[in-house]
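Notes taken during the Thursday session

The instructor put the following on the board and asked us to keep it in front of us for the whole hour. The protein is Putative MetA-pathway of phenol degradation. We were told not to look anything up and to reason only from what is written here. First, the residues (371 in total):
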Amino acid sequence: MSKNFSRRCPPGWAHAHLWLLWSGMAFGNTAEMLSAGVSHLRYQYTSAETDEYFDASGGRRSLGAVYDETLKEHGLSTEEPSVYRVDTDGRFTQIRHDLYFEYGITASLNFGLWTHYLDRQLEYSASLDREAGWSALPEPLQVGIEGVVAVADNAADGSASAWGDTVIGLKHRLIGEDNDDPFRFAYTLGVRLPTGHVADPLQPRDISVGDGQTDLGIWFAWDWEPGERWLFNLHTRHEYQFKGKEDEADPTGTRKLSREFQPGLYHYVELLAFRRIPRPGFNGFVALKAIYETQAVRREQQYDAATEQYRGALLAVDHTDSMLLRLEPEIGFNLYPSGIPVSVRLYYGLPLRGRNSLAAEYVGLRFDLFW
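Then, after some discussion, the predicted structure tokens were revealed:
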């Protein structure tokens, strides 16, 4: 898929795993609505870090082990017993700033706009561990090995700091007269616009933070509020991603070509249990989310050596389908009883299972303001 960096080592799973880092942050996930003329502004700060990912079989693997395999595939022997060993490591970090604005057109129809700014860093390292037999190697060979390892130490690093894609949509409540009804249902129709930065294929350290093409989405929210203290919510999201064109390097890495591609269908499911804790002057709350998201395989054109172009039918790319299951506990408070329309919450994300996706833990802070 294109919602991530697709040109970082290793190429197989890189298509999938970044899009499954909190892609489901746009729009209110419950069926609660704003009254006509009321505005809502949300800011979220999320920090994630990991040195592991879930591979195609669902097992956890270190990014360092993946980089070791990549170096071997490129002809570097990473270990000669009793002579030397190349130690590898890898780490992914991301800071994400989400901005979301919602406006109540009527009590049952709201408009929303969401965008985000991303700072992504992917760092691979390689270091040479010389063993007893190292001194027996000819000096030119020692120099050559040291030079290759020095290059490998940062050759696969990548980074980007840029705005991501923008989503706009309309949310309509079908069931429930107001936010006090115990049963509510709403849906949202949205469009994802390709405003985010897409990596330059001739710049190996560049990372995409944008989609690269327009997507259509539909979101569903079911609420059950049995009393004043509890809210249970089921939220699902489904996105169809159109065919698009992207820049890709030729096999020599010196010429930029155009290639057609299409990401697979994306699905997101979230279960929420929310507990209010009323206090004088403010309301505390705790919540727990279980989040499951998955994306089907990406398809793209292949390079044709005869014409020196990417052409032909779109074929499936191995290991670009992805899945991630995680838990997200929250704690926070609002000042509504004091007449101050502000809410603050802290949250923590814990990955449980996945496939072709990063196993990243994350922490975040969210502010909501209404007027």
